[in-house]
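Following up on my earlier thread - several people asked me to post the actual chain instead of describing it. Fair enough. Here it is, all 385 residues.
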Amino acid sequence: MKKQSLIVFLRRNYIEFEFIYPILNHLKKKFNIYFYFENEISFTSLKNNEKNFICFKKIAKKYSIKKITDNFFRKILLKLLIKFDLFLKFRNKLINNIHSFTSICQKLSIKDLNNIKFILSDINTNSQTLIELKKKAYPIKLFLFSPSPTNIQKSLIYKLKKNKFLFDKVDKILVPFFIKRKFFSNLIDTKKFVYIGNTIFANIKKKYKKKKIKQIVIAYNGDIKCSNDEIGFAEELIQLLRNYKDYKIIIRFHPIKFSNNVLDIFKKYQSKKLIVTKGNLITLVPNSSLFISSNDTAAISYANYFNVPALAFNNFSTKINNDSFQVKKNLVKYCSNLNLLSKEIDKILFKKSILKKFQYNLFNKMYPKLNNQKKYFLQLFDCRT
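Reply from S.P.:
Thanks for posting it. Predicted structure:
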């Protein structure tokens, strides 16, 4: 029997692939899986992450990368026409050409468009191609997914207002936790929400050691255009961490959200006991003594899953204080300044603390495991089991 086709749109970094991969792995025998990278940064991020790139090569039938030079002159012409409000019909035709779904299929060597059954994309997509696709009413199901539990509600409200057409036309929205449907009942058909669990950990086996490693992991993400306040904070944070001489300090930077100025500050102090990396948290977090991050990052889920106590400082990129999703759900303990952070670190490392058990139990209640995951995903994508 001829395999049907499925296209995945990726737009940010390897985390999108990491989130959706466990589902795609179950579908690989049923579908030819194609990938369309909406920019070169998203592909480079995945390629530089060795573990995920190996998985990618195993399931990808073919991939294509959108380059900044694609349709260059058409884009310039379109901007001029929009600026001077000229030739509306021609403008619309130009938009169709620039964001042509047929053109993407040609790049992917997909000859039969009728054989494409599904398209998957991040919930925060800005893809005009997907909008044009739905306007033309192609018989292709569009599933949006949210790799991050931190911003799904805010993202949905913003996107529903900005791009109601796409969300009215989307077939399913795959979410990592049970969402309060009543909250969205006036905005969207809530039957579109489908719980898929925290898929990043779907195939990860926990290997616990009797004793925790004397290791503190800091997941750092900040503002690309860093302020003097953030630079000052980074200097003070590194001095605080250096006080814990018996512990190995691993500072893991976000793939995109960071400033080179801040990165250079941490690199100044690099040693055998203080490591700066962009490595995968799946390999860094297990069996650590403590996890520290900004207060609204999806990285907190790694600490919760691996039963490592989680503390948080303020996120300089979003300016969010103590009202983030994870803080509200008690999945991380927020420290408003470095003095408080120091006290909480001491409690966890040198005194008896129930924080990790408390956070771990809350996390497992929020993200219950799916029974017979393979069957569940195959049925979701209309496959016989």
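The chain has a mean pLDDT of 83. That should answer part of your original question.
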